[in-house]
Design goal:
By secondary structure, the protein is an alpha+beta fold. The protein contains 16 helices and 22 strands. The chain has a domain of about 220 residues: 3-Layer(bba) Sandwich (FAD/NAD(P)-binding domain), CATH 3.50.50. A hairpin with an 8-residue loop joins strand 4 and strand 5. Helix 1 packs parallel to helix 7, helix 1 packs parallel to helix 9 and helix 9 packs antiparallel against helix 10.
Length: about 475
């Protein structure tokens, strides 16, 4: 280890976000001393409390050495193919948001261009039915991606549905194996050097926790960020929902999908977990409260203007606050952790690395904001449309193009699935697509659809497949 290298890290917050950071830093930097201060959990820390993830979780798990089979065998996770949207937009048909390829290009012409033309003419089925994941999601079937090039079962991806308590237990066991120190404590303040750099975290029992780098994983209260004076950028003009009520229902039928039901007054979700169903209701405080007992959580959509200040790094809900739509919370937390390791400065926390981290984090968060705002706009909410979302809609509605944005962690397939599922169709198509004979395009679409329609008969039901996987772990 050279003289400039970070030698110690202190993480404030022992939930899923804090333990994810501890595991990632310990695995990547085994020579660094890592301490996790397990503070009382923040009920509004959605990355720590909710079951949703995005497909990026596989990459993060690989980086920390966490085997998916272990999670499945322990009942800490189940695969999730898609999100089943009902009544969103209001009165619209049910559609599925899934990951992976949809259709296939005709030469250099993207499939969505030809599909949009056929859809306008009433000659195309819903977008998700041209994807292997969409067909399986609608049929309630699942198998892990498999097969070689050309196989439709090799062209899709999936996320994980997590049981938060069990997932946290497995992360805690992992960081213990990696010799991370975990200690209970309550944050009381900070001690600074003369240059403003944090010298130590002060705990309520009088202890001082000293480190070279401090991570704030305390949730949206962001107590460490507040102590160092981090500014907050409010996004409530673009994201209207700021209340969340969580509950539980009895076990529901095993499904590879979470269900999202929209409406003019917010939306609800149902997420089947082993032995229970997690339920949620999301709405705006400007509307009548469906929670007369006052049990809801208050959310303040937005982000920290600079998630890294000197030697303090904010991650998860301490850096970005979003509602649960599309489960962005853990995705952004774990992406932020990976980005910090990629740009890790020395003990002096040089401004060059910190500025680049902040730039990338800001851009990623803004695009996730845009993605959520798109859904609210299509639901009929009165919102202030961010300039970057306005540009995306202008380009797509004009010619079916998606503009390129730096640090957008959502691939084109995710944007297309949402835009087309929400009923956003381009007014015209690109000239190259217009040159494809409609009869030829229709025949190709029919061929693709017919091939995918045969998949469910070859794939086990979701419950059956999970039983097979768990039995193989015994």
């Amino acid at each position: 280890m050279n003289d400039r290298a970070i030698r110690s890290v202190a993480i404030l917050g022992g939930g899923i976000t804090g333990l994810s950071a501890a595991a990632a830093f310990a695995r990547a930097l085994p020579q660094v001393a890592i301490t996790v201060i397990e503070t009382a959990p923040d009920p509004a820390a959605l990355a720590d409390r909710l079951p949703g993830s995005m497909t990026s979780i596989h990459r993060f798990h690989a980086s920390i050495g966490l085997d998916e089979a272990v999670l499945l065998g322990a009942g800490a996770a189940t695969p999730r193919l898609g999100l089943r949207f009902e009544n969103w937009p209001a009165g619209g048909e049910t559609w599925y948001h899934v990951h992976g390829d949809h259709g296939a290009p005709t030469g250099t012409v993207a499939f969505h261009q030809l599909w949009a033309r056929a859809r306008r003419e009433g000659q195309a089925e819903p977008w998700h039915r041209y994807a292997a994941a969409g067909v399986l999601a609608e049929a309630g079937r699942f198998v892990h991606p498999q097969g070689g090039p050309g196989s439709p079962l090799a062209t899709f991806d999936y996320a994980l549905r997590l049981d938060p308590e069990r997932y946290r237990e497995i992360l805690a066991s992992l960081v213990d194996q990696l010799r991370v120190v975990r200690t209970q404590g309550s944050f009381a303040g900070i001690d600074r050097h003369g240059d403003g750099v944090v010298a130590a975290l002060l705990l309520a029992d009088g202890r001082r926790i000293e480190a070279d780098l401090y991570l704030d994983a305390s949730g949206p209260a962001a107590v460490l960020a507040e102590a160092v004076g981090g500014a907050f950028e409010d996004w409530s003009n673009a994201l209207p929902c700021d209340r969340l009520l969580l509950g539980e229902g009895p076990p529901s039928a095993a499904s590879p999908n979470d269900t999202i039901v929209g409406g003019a007054r917010g939306w609800q979700f149902a997420c089947p977990l082993p032995g229970r169903t997690m339920l949620g209701h999301v709405w705006s405080s400007a509307d009548p409260a469906p929670d007369p007992q006052g049990r809801s959580l208050a959310l303040r959509p937005g982000r920290r203007a600079d998630p890294w200040i000197r030697n303090v790094l904010m991650i998860g809900d301490a850096a970005v606050v979003l509602d649960p739509l599309h489960w962005p919370n853990l995705h952004l937390a774990q992406n932020g952790i990976a980005r910090a390791l990629d740009l890790l400065p020395g003990r002096d926390c040089h401004p060059v690395e910190i500025a680049e981290y902040n730039r990338r984090s800001r851009e990623e968060a803004r695009r996730m904001r845009d993605f959520q705002a798109l859904h609210y706009l299509r639901a009929g909410a009165s919102i202030e449309v961010p300039e970057s979302l306005a540009r995306t809609l202008q380009q797509f509605e004009s010619r079916g193009r998606l503009p390129v944005y730096d640090e957008d962690s959502l691939p084109d397939e995710i944007w297309l699935s949402a835009l087309l599922g929400l009923g956003v169709l381009p007014r015209d198509i690109q000239p190259l697509a217009a040159a494809v004979d409609p009869i030829v395009a229709a025949a190709r679409m029919t061929e693709i659809r017919a091939g995918l329609a045969q998949l469910p008969a070859r794939v086990p039901g979701f419950a059956e497949y999970l039983a097979q996987v768990r039995a193989s772990r015994r």
